[in-house]
Amino acid sequence: MNTKNSKLFVDDFMNYVRAKDPGQPEFHQAVHEVVESLADFLLDNPRYRHTQILERMVEAERIIQFRVPWMDDRGKIHINRGYRVEMNSAIGPYKGGLRFHPTVNQSILKFLAFEQVLKNSLTSLPMGGGKGGSDFDPKNKSDNEVMRFCQSFMTELSRHIGPYSDVPAGDIGVGGREIGFLFGQYKRIRNEFTGVLTGKGVEWGGSLIRPEATGYGAVYFAKEMMKTRGESFKGKVVAVSGSGNVAQFATEKVIELGGKVVTLSDSSGSIYDPEGIDRDKLNYVMELKNVHRGRIKEYADKYAVQYMEKQRPWIVKCDVALPCATENELNLEEAKMLIGNGCFVVAEGANMPSTEEAVHYFLEKQILYGPGKAANAGGVAVSGLEMTQNSMRIAWSREEVDTKLHSIMCNIHEMCMKYGKEKSEFTNYVKGANIAGFVKVANSMMAQGLV
Ligand code: GLU
């Protein structure tokens, strides 16, 4: 290992990436984290450098951008922008979610697609990486408006996807309702009932446990990390951010394992319930968010607990933090606050929720830090299992899928330990996940020639 050489390597590579794609800060952040972890490994393994695998991996195989026109309930016309970033297909069809959110742009989708390539590789299932979406804002839209938008979006997207080429799913702003509308339109245009999307309803080809998978998986991963220090969730205080699908099922699993979740949040603020969110309160959150599409503040009003307006949860005292909202939702100052308050486990249910400075701080303090591409891989892993069930035309039971999810998360944890153990016996899960994810994709790319 040569620290000076590896720093030069990282700087050179990042200059190359920034020069090619200026103005894509989230993409640069995601690539930088990976290149930092890989530098020593690549210097020790020149075959990956000579074949320019990393240069090839940061270049999407294909990016599709398209117009999405649609009409609202009052007859007003709106024009949104749709995208699909087809990043890497070395180990399987492009696979990754669709995000509908006003912040969506190429930088965000390229960061997500790049992460997805390594994450999907870690699952050990045959899935390449992609990501897509639109700057459409589903907030305050009627079901009919969302349906018309989804139909317009899929009318174009359907030309570019298929069960053997690219299999989208959900992400922020795309849940069961949207997947239903998207699937209906794809089937209508192509006259094919196939597993072209995952996250489908169980009555029409979806997998049991898919809605639960990302949240459950993140908790299974955290459980494995805690085991290495003889710890468990029993009696632990847990701060969760977000209140969508990932946050809800992470909370459910923490409750089941005997922990106490004391926070949830949305983009307007956080609730702090020191008594803990129990099963009944969680049912209320699920109804509030999934049926009424309301705001988390209503929880504070209903249960007379503290509402922290415009605040994220990281200021409260906890043992475990599960960021399950969105990218860059946990900065250095908040990382210091968490650790100062005794937090020793951070497992990311969201993609890249910790800023680069926060990640460096976690590693410096040697806490149990599970980066998103490892900790939240359960979602896409069960999407992979949904694809398998669709191909076999069968449906597995809850227990079968949950057992497979659990063993996939344990396997990812093991791979992180294998590649991330440092001399001090500390496991750097960032390094472990990045190297383990990279090796399989890189070897496959080399085997397939310069394509
Ligand atoms: N959007 C999820 C993720 O970030 C799931 C993707 C999928 O199931 O394809 O991994």
UniProtKB/TrEMBL annotation:
The active site is at K131. GO terms for biological process: glutamate biosynthetic process. Pfam families: ELFV_dehydrog, ELFV_dehydrog_N. SUPFAM superfamilies: Aminoacid dehydrogenase-like, N-terminal domain, NAD(P)-binding Rossmann-fold domains. Residues 207-449 form the Glutamate/phenylalanine/leucine/valine/L-tryptophan dehydrogenase C-terminal domain. It comes from the Bacteria. Homohexamer. This is Glutamate dehydrogenase.
